Prior knowledge:
It is a single chain. By secondary structure, the chain is of the alpha+beta class. 45% of the residues lie in helices and 12% in strands. The strands form three sheets. Strands 1, 2, 3, 4, 5, 8 and 9 form a seven-stranded antiparallel sheet that branches. The radius of gyration is 20 Å and the shape is globular.
Amino acid sequence: MRTFGVEEELLIVDPVTGMPLALADALLAGYEEPATETGLSQELKLEQIETQTRPCHSYAELLQQIRRGRAMADEAARRHGARVAAIATSPLASNTHTTPDPRYAAMLDHFGIIATEQLTCGFHVHTSVESPEEGVVVLDHIRDKLAVLTALSANSPYWRGLPTGFDSYRTQAWNRWPTSGPSSLFGSLTAYRRVVQRLLDTGVVLDEGMIYFDARIARNQPTVEVRVADVCLRAEDAALIAVLVRALVETASLEMLDGVDPTPVPTALLRMAGWRASNSGLRGDLLDFGDFRPQPAADVVWALVDYLSPVLDDQGELALVKAGITGILERGNGALEQRDAAARYSAGHRDGGNPPGSEALAAVVSHAAKVTVRGTATGAFKDPVAFKDPVPLLTRVRRP
């Protein structure tokens, strides 16, 4: 079985007001070990912190790693009177603070308000491939199915203090970057590298790290990196999304061996599918990845499971995935859970002079902070052998 691992971006929040707090530097200052040992690192904004797992072989192993990373980040936050919350955008409006770093400063100068407002938390899944050539084959085969993952993971219904009408508004905010979104068919590694180089030659993006395709070949690891998902509120949902990604990668590789060509879906249609998934999530229709016509979201999700079922069954994960998908469809994704938390608060309280809805949105963040670390044993991050085995973390090398 292919190894897989994830990166999670978590929001650092005030547990009372729900406001994002620019504390990433302070959280990381308590650790003498580098990110390759702790599994924690900075991101674009000081209001967020990233966790990274090691490459894993199973859902259970990955879930344990995700929970351990969340526990470590939350304990570091608690030392400063804060918490972490696995929500993809802040429900409350606030100023953001860019992490002191020459590269990030250049991004802020070059992209202006796009970088200023880019406080979003994504979920990136890395799956091992045998070679970059195989990786490009995978990219071509999975591109038409990724929007389903956006709908399942959608966890950002609020933006700057307002309901957005979207389940994943992070997707909308993220897609303001010039290279974000679905990519065209590449056909070969040579073609992929040519596209990347031509994008760099435009001078619009600063470096290869800003090639923000929905899925890309990782620069520093032998993996395909799928980037369409919101950070998931629940750790078990995050591990489930990763299992689906790994099954997509394996299925794509098997199709290559069987001589099955990727479906030549126009990139414009993929943008429509991503937009629909971002907008309504699981609440209405999604675009079916077979004919790209609207179908009930649950039907499209189960169609993806059916498509992946031979690989999932072979890997002993089909029953696990069916149970996990049933759970998400019955209780809703993170966006619905956030809306429900706001509605429960509003039903029994009034905002008492604060801006309309601010206390309800603070209740959303409080609920999210609790769910983020649910199922995590207290002190698990302190395990002296937890981060000491020789397998490398999924840590990016940042360019100055």
